[in-house]
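Q: I'm writing up a methods section and want to include an example of the input and output format. Could you take the sequence below and give the corresponding predicted structure tokens, formatted cleanly so I can copy it straight into the document?
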Amino acid sequence: MSATQIGIIAVALLIILGVLLLIWMQVVRNRTETEDHEPPESLQALKDARIDPGEKVATSISEEIESLVQAELSDLPDLANRKIDFSTAADDSLVIWLDGVAYHNVADIPDDRIRHAIQKAVDSFNKTALG
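A: Here is the clean output for your methods example:
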């Protein structure tokens, strides 16, 4: 093999390596661009989720009803400052926290106005959710 043939083979190998490097860079770029896109709509809520300090974990339906209850209570001056929070127990049952006290049954809440606000919120939710 002559020096010219060896030189041609070396140049060909360098060209092949260059092409492979370009292909690899394109694959890496495509993967990076895919990872930088917005998450699918189903995960967008998780990305935008905000949990207030001290907020207990609950289902989205419970959280929505909790918001309706809080809006209802805000219209009643003597109840507006009551701290209410809905959470989900380990057995998936609803727990209503009122001023730090846990109630596993709405009927156990001592203030009938708060029980009424919860019932009104549930009725309102059911009316809009069920059409």
